[in-house]
Amino acid sequence: MTAEPRVRLRPPGQARTPWLYLAPALVVLGGLLVYPVYQLGLISFLEYTQAQVSGGVPTSFRGLGNYRELFGDAEFWRVLLATVVFAAACVVCTLAVGCALAVLLTRVRAVPRLVLMLAALGAWATPAVTGSTVWLLLFDPDFGPVNRFLGLGDHSWTYGRYSAFLLVLLEVVWCSFPFVMVTVYAGIRAVPAEVLEAAALDGASQWRIWRSVLAPLLRPILLVVTIQSVIWDFKVFTQIYVMTGGGGIAGQNLVLNVYAYQKAFASSQYGLGSAIGVVMLLILLAVTLGQLRLLRRRGEEL
């Protein structure tokens, strides 16, 4: 007769110890994240314009009035569609460039690897305003070297809607791919060399090794960089604002973040601008939770 295993219960005080260590960070996050989100949601339900800010008119409760006005505006849906398409293109291009360079880092020698890492980290560390200004100078219709090299004369990249979005996309990818590259490279280095050698001995090409071996093993890492890229690219503001002059000609290059800025600060409709911010927050939460749920359904762990 075998004895049943005894279950050891932790003392109540020991169960609270991890939360005590986390308490300072949770307090800071609460002040920096929870309270601003609360204020954003509160203002989105109020009639809050410059008149209320200056104190000349009392603040009134609108309920869902700001949201009804927002959803009834055809321009909002146009900007939302442009934002989704632009963010998706940025995410796909950033992941493609970052993953390709991460694989390249595993194939080159130490000195080229170090040079590529330093160049990528330099692009990553460049402030968004500085990077956007540099890209504008590179593609300047009068003095930019890109037009001279391509023989485009005085072609203005920011005049057309799609060429302006393309220019911003290139800058966003340039400053975003280093995060993907470094993270995926670290994940590749953690994969046992025997696994990759076995795939190569079986005659698998580099693309097949990535698709059938590395990508499945790196799925949790790829999910993290995808979620991070979605958050960054969906709320792009600086690049669009600087490179298109606040949203392009007649607002042709508006994205939701710039649209919210125009409503809140240019038009002094702070309640409407806050409603746009809440909609953006809900969209990002839905995308993130959906990706995490998909990962758990596949039995993966972060």
What does this protein structure show overall?
With 302 residues, the chain is mainly α. It has 14 helices and two strands. It has helices spanning 12-43, 50-54, 65-71, 74-105, 110-125, 128-138, 145-150, 161-190, 193-201, 206-217, 219-234, 238-243, 256-266, 270-297; strands spanning 46-47, 60-61. A two-stranded antiparallel sheet has the order 1-2. Helix 1 (12-43) crosses helix 14, helix 3 (65-71) crosses helix 14 and helix 6 (128-138) crosses helix 8 (161-190). It is globular. The model has no long low-confidence stretch (mean pLDDT 87).
β-strand number = 2
| General form | globular
End-to-end distance, in Å?
41 Å
Q: Helix proportion of residues, in percent?
A: over 70%
Q: What would you report as the Rg, rounded to the nearest angstrom?
A: 25 Å
| Unreliable runs | none
- SSE order, as H and E? HEHEHHHHHHHHHHHH
In what order do the strands lie side by side in the largest sheet? 1-2
Mean pLDDT: 87
By DSSP (H or I, 4+ residues per run), the number of helices equals 14
Largest sheet: number of strands, sense, barrel closure: 2 strands, antiparallel
The SS-based structural class is mainly alpha
The portion of residues forming beta strands comes to under 5%
